[in-house]
Write a structure and sequence with these properties.
The protein is of the alpha/beta class. It has twelve helices and eight strands. The mean pLDDT is 95. Bound molecules: zinc ion.
């Protein structure tokens, strides 16, 4: 099944394709273990920093190798902040490109996103393009020891969203509706009335993406999935689970030198976290 078909199926049936970031093989293996166990499709992503560590072609080859074994797994270039970085990921064989120019003024975001959609679709229409509107200036995977109030101006505006989607023809739309990257001390308050307005105003088959899913209440996530957020990102929580397990394993076994041994609990922790999220997103046995 193609990624686009997967997202449309998820939209019709009320579940979400989970998206997890990775930068190590043990992390990726943990995610894959969960997907196999639950018979779930999965989107894995690399940010610009992560892909530098893994290698663009290497990330593509790894994901392809799992797909050849029958898994419904796809690779996303998460938060690419330039046209060049987005094109490089497409050229290397990524299945999905997230062009994130949300920091730029509206029209520059539109123009850059449009350029990527045209580039990608002219060469391979099966590759999805995601873009975002509304800007949250928080670190992608940080746990903040402070309260972070989202500025009113950072929320996605409905009229801008309509114009943005009409002009760019993206496959997936990532709005700012109370979600933010990282986890802060305060609760993430999701504006459901804004989501309703966006859903009404935008094309019905448009996939919405949840960014900054870590730290949103489970009940709110479930509701968002039912409202058409059929692509859901978790990064901070998975990194946290993986890293804490790895640190504990290294501390408890200071003489152990074999990565396959001391990384095993970290892989298992990534698997457990991925499994928990797949259950939350209603992604079990959907194929
Ligand atoms: Zn994100």
């Amino acid at each position: 099944m193609k990624l686009h078909e997967l997202h449309q199926k998820a939209l019709t049936e009320g579940w979400a394709v989970p998206h997890f970031n990775f930068s190590s093989l043990a992390q990726l293996n943990g995610i894959v273990d969960a997907a196999k166990k639950l018979n779930a499709p999965v989107l894995v992503g690399t940010s610009e920093g992560e892909r530098k560590h893994v290698g663009l072609k290497q990330a593509v080859a790894l994901v392809k190798s799992f797909r050849e074994e029958g898994l419904h797994i796809f690779l996303n270039a998460d938060h690419t902040h330039s046209i060049e970085a987005a094109m490089a990921a497409f050229d290397a064989g990524y299945d999905s490109i997230h062009i994130d120019l949300s920091k730029l003024p509206f029209q520059e975001n539109v123009d850059g996103t449009k350029k990527i959609v045209e580039y990608v679709k002219s060469k391979n229409p099966d590759v999805e393009v995601e873009a975002e509107l509304g800007y949250l200036d928080t670190d992608y995977s940080k746990i903040y020891n402070e309260v972070i109030e989202i500025p009113e101006d950072s929320y996605t505006k409905v009229d801008e969203a309509v114009s943005f989607v009409e002009q760019t023809h993206i496959d997936r739309f990532a709005p700012a509706v109370g979600n933010m990257h990282g986890i802060a001390l305060n609760d993430k308050v999701i504006r459901f009335e804004l989501i309703e307005q966006l859903r009404k105003a935008l094309p019905q088959n448009l996939t919405f993406t949840i960014h900054g899913g870590s730290g949103i209440y489970d009940e709110d996530i479930k509701k968002m999935v039912q409202m058409g957020f059929n692509n859901a990102h978790i990064s901070t929580e998975l990194r946290q689970a993986y890293t804490l397990a790895l640190r504990k394993s290294l501390n408890e076994n200071p003489d152990e030198l074999s990565p396959q041994v001391y990384e095993a609990p970290a892989r298992a922790a990534a698997e457990a976290l991925a499994e928990e999220k797949m259950r939350l997103y209603n992604t079990v046995n959907v194929l």
